[in-house]
Amino acid sequence: MTNEKIQYNNGHRHKSKNNNHKIYIGIITTLLLAVGMFIALVIYSNTLQRSFQSEIISSLKESANQSVAILQNKIAGKIDLLMEISDRISTLPIKDYQKTVDGLDDTCARYHFKRMGIILPNGDAYSTDQQFMNLSDRSYFKNAMQGISTISDTLIDRIGGESINVYSTPIYEDNHIVGVLFATYASNDLRNLLAVPTFEGEGYLYLVNREGTCIIDSSHPKSYKNMKNLFDSMLTLDSNNKDEVATLREHLQKGQEGYIKFNNHGYRYMYYAPLGVNDWNVITVISADVLEKKMNQVMYKTYSLSASLLAIFIMTLGYILITQRKNRQIIMDIAYVDPLTGGYSYAKFQKEFPAVLADVTRKAAILNLDIDDFKFINDAFGYREGDNLIRYIWNILSTWVEKDELYAHQSADVFVALVFYDEEEKLRERLDDLCEQLQHYYIRHNNKVRIVPAIGIHEIMNKTQSQDSFIDAARLARKTVKGKMDIFYAFYDEAIKESIYHDKEIEATMQDALNNHEFIVYYQPKYNADTQQIEGAEALVRWQKKDGTLVPPNDFIPLFERNGFITAVDSYVFKSVCRFQRSLMDQGITPVPISVNLSRMHIYDLDFIEKYTTYMEQLQIPISYIQLEITESAISDNQALLLDVLNRLHQLGFLILLDDFGTGYSSMLMLKNLSIDVLKIDKSFVDNIGDHRGNKIIDGIISLSQSLDISITAEGVEQQSQYEYLKMRGCNHIQGYYFAKPMAEAAFKKLL
Ligand code: C2E
Ligand code: CA
Ligand code: CA
Questions:
Q1: Ligand 1 within 6 A of 718 CB?
Q2: Looking at the predicted structure, is the pLDDT value of residue 93 above 70?
Q3: Which of 520, 526, 540, 542, when mutated, tests ligand 1's pocket best, judged by the most ligand atoms within 8 Å of its CB?
Q4: Residues 6+ apart with CB under 8 A from 462
Q5: Could you read off the pLDDT of 289-348 as tens digits, one per residue?
Q6: Of 344, 389, 490, which is closest to residue 431 (Cα–Cα)?
């Protein structure tokens, strides 16, 4: 307990289960979020990949189609050119070949042909570069002789060994083919046409025929070097391409366009489209790297964005958890730390109680402690001094409790403790020690004030009973020693239980009793001290049970004051008195003023003045026939309110009596401010008449009242000597057994 307290004061506490719980939820949420994000990213990257892929394919296709258009255009242009020249040659005297060929020089240069020439039907050729060869075996020659104008596949030039393509077209004379016009074109020039930059230089093109035979290869660094046949290159360089080559082969055979993904140092995409010239096809290729690069760029951004989001989420979550924890800590401190002592609050005490009680093997008891008249210390010395006293008690309790015992400041000057013991005798010894310690208290380091502890103890016999019932029992036990100067503690016992039972019984029957007029009014006359004439009376309530027994007010008034029923009884008495006065008046008897007691609770019922006066008006009772008694203890409750109520009553013409004067803490100076007409000296002072100090007190009260113009009534006067002393000192009225006891209405009427 002590250890725990220190921990508590320092604010170090193990995390609550609830708190851990929240952290777990936080972690799980974060994990779920991360997994969710991961799945979303995978889906996203797949979609992205697919869309990039289709974007790449369509770019490849576009680029292939573009090349197709360029090549078709170029080749068709050249063939048209040859056909045009061939037409011209037909009109020339064909026999002079060399001369005709020489006439082509300009054209040859203008169109960047390597050479142009004419081939005779026997294959002998005349060319612009003066080379003579027999080209009868060349297929372009054979095609042209068949009447077909073509461009040849890539051939090796017989002169110089360069790669060439040859355009050829027949030369007609009278609708007979008399020779072939040809133009040789360096493959390199054709290749230049294909070297259109695609994908920022990453893509490249081939021209192959249906068999895959290379027509034009690519100079691109990533392309197949010295490619003779595309299929062969694909197969020899990577055996994984078998299926792709089969597809490609099939499609080229059929003259279809399409794409494949194949392997050549990583994946590449290939698009193929027939050129429409010979059986040639334009092939565009791009490495999948490009796609990956693009993908990576986008994915990198996406990943960093997701990571940032996740980080922000985690940070926010962390922040929330931390602030929540702080707030909880603050709330817990508010709820569980008593601000005055820094120790356990009552809430904390209640929370810890069951576990501590369950753990203990010794006997256990609940203590409920306060000190008598704490209010007096607050009122007389100020709240700071009151707080000091609370801390003083706390400190004593802190050293007094034993290991594992629980204690807390409950409210005002009330403390609770759960203590352990083996024998009741030992517990009593400890209690004696505690009370002894508590009684030495110094206010402002010089004023020694004896504080009187009041402790109620309830021994816990049955641990299964409710915690509140234990604490209640201890509190009730404490109430029994309240105001007793020589007994400081009491154990909850049968008698207390009995009185609680008694109270419960009263509470159960009080309303019926009021309805059934079981409450009756007794009157105790007040006598003029000089003339000994009756000049007034006090109305005192009695409870006459159905069986006829009379219950004195002290048996039920304190309970009614606690439960609030007193206001109902007071106004019942008030009305009874009014009716009594009315009946006297009706019978022609002159009434004397009768005082009724006003419980302090009336101060808070702002309507009561109106209710009282209305009732008196109804019965036409002069205001002077009813007087009001207010006990002194009501003054310390709420002075401002009381002052207001008294002033209003005074203005209405009521006479106000201050009851039980000298038993509360009202300062004599306060009398000056209050609208008091009569001061009732309490019986306890009258009892002390005869004693030197007792006389002095009476003398003081009387002379003070006289100086303030306040009339004096002495209560509880039983002896002649008391009466005489009071009369001698100038006391105005006497109320007490010496003259008359409280009596029933009929008896009082007779007396009047
Ligand atoms: P209290 O207002 O101080 O009333 C005076 C009490 O002193 C009465 O006791 C009265 O019977 C008693 N008494 C009068 N002269 C003598 C005497 O010479 N010797 C002794 N020993 N006692 C004397 P009671 O009637 O038992 O009333 C007790 C208290 O109950 C009252 O004290 C008052 O505080 C309260 N009480 C009685 N009736 C009412 C009521 O209608 N309303 C309220 N709010 N309180 C009431
Ligand atoms: Ca009274
Ligand atoms: Ca009194």
A1: yes
A2: no
A3: 540
A4: none
A5: 777 788 888 888 988 998 899 899 889 988 988 888 888 888 877 788 888 898 999 999
A6: 490
Ligand 1 near 540 CB (within 6 A): yes
Q: Tens digits of per-residue pLDDT, 542-583?
A: 999 999 889 999 989 988 988 889 999 999 999 999 999 999
Does 557 sit in the ligand 1 pocket, CB within 6 Å? yes
In contact, 747 and 726? CB cutoff 8 Å: no
Sheet strands (E) in 225-309: 258-263, 267-274, 281-287
Q: Judge if the beta carbon of residue 524 lies within 6 A of ligand 1.
A: yes
**Burial per residue of 168-201, b for 16 or more beta-carbon CB atoms within 10 angstroms, e otherwise:** bbbbeeeeeebbbbbbbbbbebbbebbeeebbee
What one-letter code names the amino acid at 251? H
Q: How many residues does the chain have?
A: 752
pLDDT at 722: 97
Strand partners, 689: 691
- Does the C-beta of 575 come closer than 6 Å to ligand 1? no
Distance separating alpha carbons of residues 590 and 611, to the nearest angstrom: 25
- Which pLDDT belongs to residue 636? 62
Beta partners for residue 370, in sequence order: 454
Residue nearest to atom 44 of ligand 1 (CA): 599
**Which residue has its alpha carbon closest to ligand 1 atom 37?**
540
Measured in Å, residue 107 CA sits from the centre of ligand 1 at 148
For residue 548, the CA-to-ligand 2 centroid distance in Å is 24
* Token couple for 685: 């002072």
Closest atom of ligand 1 to CA, residue 680: 3
Q: Cβ(541) to ligand 1 under 6 A?
A: yes
pLDDT digit string, tens, across residues 640-651: 788 888 999 999
The Å distance, Cα 554 to ligand 2 centre, comes to 12
Measured CA to CA, the distance from residue 316 to residue 310 in angstroms comes to 10
According to the model, what pLDDT value does residue 49 have? Answer: 83
In terms of Cα–Cα distance, which of 539, 536, 515, 518 is closest to 527? 536
Q: Which one of the ligands is nearest to 527 CA?
A: 1
Q: Which of 510, 522, 557, 595 to mutate to test the pocket of ligand 1 (most atoms within 8 A of CB)?
A: 557
Which backbone phi and psi does 540 adopt, to 5 degrees?
Answer: -125, 130
* Residue 419 three-state SS: strand
386 ligand 1 Cβ < 6 A: no
Measured by CA distance, the residue closest to atom 23 of ligand 1 is 716
Among the bound ligands, the one closest to the CA of 541: 1
Which pair of structure tokens corresponds to residue 215?
A: 């027509």
Give the helix/strand (H/E) hosting 178.
strand 176-186
Ligand lying closest to the C-alpha of residue 566? 1
Q: What angle do CA 479, 481, 487 make, to 5 degrees?
A: 165
Mean pLDDT of the chain: 87
Note whether 269 and 56 are within 8 A (CB): yes
pTM for this model (two decimals) = 0.52
In degrees and rounded to multiples of 5, residue 14 shows phi and psi of -65, 145
CB 259 within 8 A of CB 288: no
In 212-257, at which residue ranges do the beta strands (DSSP E only) sit? 214-216
Residue 179 CB–ligand 1 contact under 6 Å: no
**In this structure, which ligand is nearest to the CA of 628?**
2
E strands along 34-175, which residues? 115-119, 124-127, 132-134, 150-151, 155-156, 163-173
Instruction: Compute how many other C-beta atoms are within 10 angstroms of the C-beta atom of residue 541.
Output: 23
Let me know: does 266 contact 237? Beta carbons within 8 Å.
no
